[in-house]
Design goal:
Rossmann fold, 2 domains, six-stranded mixed β-sheet, 21 helices, 39% helix, elongated
Length: 641
């Protein structure tokens, strides 16, 4: 079993009694053992977790400082056999200074001490009354639990194959958080020990803060904060714990709980490294970091042999989840229609020509055309919808195409391609009853010729309907449906196409809604082979190339994340467990890789089209690949799974 670049981490909220260091250490020990049993490699505790944050002037009492150190020493000894790094909050005496510090520990050893940099001294906070900031402290080493260890805000730590940094509470809220510099210095994960009090609306702001910091630093951010046990003399501590990765939410605690909590998830360090390599801005910022290089302390913890995932892995990574869904659907349609509106305005064209088949892709493209014409104040009659019945056209798709065009009040033209194709077969001496690739592609190219000629005839633009998934698989006829004058669906994957059509349907009147939903439920097919004896679609795309939900999953993780076939397979088996057997996932993954490499030549000359998400195959933008690149490395890895 491999770990595929994942490291399991945890944010802990232990039971706590203010100033009872021995009790606090015992409660921390329980969560350390629980985390280790769950396979966690690094666990972080709240700010001043050994004493409690709300000790007030007791921090000026040597007895409390000695008790905290003794409790830490006992905790180190009792957890020395556990293969887990833990980060404890502790007041640390450094000569005449007292540091509000994070203590990084592993197998009985203190790896380093990171003092808090930004000490809040406003409103309910007055930390400068007791502590010295890391910026004002002149030392570089401290003696703690009988160990002389490096201390400073310029420390990073290496554990389980990852590099992490630490900051404490207010550091995150500052204008330039220390974690920003730590990320540029190489930290892939930031752990934050906090004791932030609860206020109405504050948690929502905190989530956005953690999400944005992880996105800006192209890192993971693991945050934990003190809970129920802290003093409620003037403040209440609700126990926040959050885990984000590159802006994406992974896990959070249940706030206002009276019970201890351990929030666990896995960080994909490999994905973060890939993102950093691809992001030239991050590389430039790192190269020009103004501070001296940080010291990286090796904790001595080897990477885990394998990892059992608990984090969410979406089956449909191109489709937003939760509250963002409506907003994203609206925005994708706006981007598509705005792009087309610009192209129409630039060319001065008042007509758009589109082939309408009664299938998903042409339906979405037609909906985009309607929006673009409405934006420009153009009559919808300028949209010329052409239905082109062929040998495989079924009554369901034919009737749906006509009904949709009439419902949207566009110009309808019906041009059968049967006679033209039969003449073409005769011209090239191809038997009309030989249903091979020539038979299929001749129809696709005839349809494209019709559209191009109608566009010339009317002074319009041919609007392409092919989607991102078809481009990835090469499931398009070269110089046939692969070609257009503007491809509005070029960066919209098939799973999202279907979802967008259903989303539009939900906002339409009943007759149009039923029509769009029936189109969404129609089997995906180019309808280039004759229908079956019952007049139904016989050529189903997903039977031939595989389920689009799998291919879109592969496409996202291959292009957007840069993952290897083995890692994609690992994630797909986890995401689609209970839906597809591992051998089925492997079969279609091999198909995806083989087709993706073989069909690059079609993408190298694809028409213009708007980018709507984080993945595009435009040769002028996101994806530059030689048409004759060898696929052996990827195929061999996939076939050996």
């Amino acid at each position: 079993m491999q770990n595929y670049g994942f490291i399991k981490v945890a944010a802990a909220i232990p039971a706590l009694k203010v100033a009872d260091c021995a009790y606090n250490a015992q409660e921390m020990e329980k969560l350390i053992r629980q985390a280790a049993g769950d396979g966690v490699r690094v666990v972080v505790f709240p700010e001043l977790s050994l004493t409690g944050y709300t000790c007030g002037d007791l921090f000026l009492q040597p007895a409390l400082i000695r008790a905290a150190e003794a409790a830490l020493a006992d905790l180190l000894q009792r957890t020395a056999a556990e293969d887990i790094v833990f980060i404890a909050g502790c007041p640390v005496a450094a000569g005449s200074a007292l540091l509000n510090a994070a203590v990084v520990c592993y197998r009985g050893k203190i790896c380093g001490v990171v003092p808090k940099t930004c000490l809040p001294n406003y409103k309910e906070f007055y930390e400068k009354r007791w502590f010295v900031s890391a910026e004002d402290w002149q030392g570089g080493e401290v003696t703690l639990c009988g160990q002389c260890v490096r201390a400073g805000a310029d420390l990073l730590f290496q554990a389980s194959g990852a590099v992490f940094g630490v900051e404490v509470c207010e550091d995150l809220w500052s204008c330039i958080p220390p974690s920003s510099q730590a990320a540029l210095q190489g930290a892939e994960i930031i752990f934050n020990l906090s004791a932030s009090d609860s206020l109405a609306g504050k948690s929502r702001y905190l989530r956005s803060l953690v999400a944005q910091q992880s996105a800006r630093g192209l890192c993971a951010y693991v945050y934990t904060s003190g809970g129920f046990g802290e003093s409620s003399t003037d403040l209440t501590f609700g126990g926040n714990a959050l885990i984000y990765e590159d802006g994406a939410f992974l896990a959070e605690a249940r706030r206002y709980s009276l019970e201890p909590q351990l929030i666990v998830s896995e960080i994909d360090v490999e994905a973060l490294r890939t993102e950093r390599r691809a992001n030239t801005t991050f590389a430039t910022d790192s190269a020009h970091a103004t501070l001296e290089p940080y010291e990286v302390v090796d904790c001595g913890q080897a990477p885990a042999a394998g990892v059992a995932l608990t984090r969410p892995v979406s089956r449909t990574p191109f489709i937003a989840q939760g509250a963002q869904l409506d907003e994203n659907c609206q925005e994708v349609l706006e981007i598509q229609s705005l792009g087309l509106a610009k192209r129409l305005a630039h060319t001065g064209a008042k007509k758009a020509v589109i082939g309408v088949s009664g299938g998903l892709d042409s339906t979405l493209a037609l909906l985009v055309c309607v929006r673009a014409f409405d934006k420009l104040g153009l009559s919808r009659s300028g949209i010329i919808g052409v239905t082109m019945p062929g040998f495989g056209t079924t009554g369901r798709t034919y009737q749906n195409a006509l009904a949709l065009m009439n419902a949207l009040k566009i110009t309808v033209r019906e041009i059968s391609i049967k006679e033209a194709c039969l003449q073409h077969f005769k011209d090239i001496s191809h038997p009309a009853d030989t249903h091979d690739i020539t038979y299929e592609n001749a129809q696709a190219r005839e349809r494209t010729q019709v559209l191009m000629d109608v566009a010339n005839q009317t002074g319009g633009l041919v609007i392409g309907t092919g989607d991102l998934s078809e481009l990835a698989l090469g499931w398009a006829t070269y110089n046939g449906d692969q070609m257009s004058m503007y491809g509005v669906n070029a960066s919209v994957p098939k799973t999202l196409v279907k979802h967008l059509v259903k989303w539009v349907a939900a906002q339409e009147e009943e007759s149009v809604r039923k029509l769009l939903l029936d189109i969404a439920d129609t089997p995906i097919s180019p309808e280039l082979l004759p229908a079956d004896s019952a007049g139904k679609i016989s050529q189903k795309t997903e039977d031939l190339v595989g389920p689009y939900e799998l291919h879109d999953f592969y496409l996202y993780h291959f292009l957007r994340r840069g993952f290897s076939p083995a890692k994609i397979y690992f994630l797909a088996c986890y995401a689609f467990r209970g839906e597809y057997a591992p051998e089925v996932i492997k079969k279609w993954l091999v198909t995806f890789i083989r087709r993706f490499f073989a069909q690059q030549f079609k993408r190298s000359c694809m028409p213009d089209g708007p980018k709507v998400g984080s993945v595009s195959l435009s040769p002028r933008g996101d994806w530059r690949m030689p048409s004759d690149a060898c696929s052996q490395v990827w195929l061999q890895e996939a076939e050996n799974l």
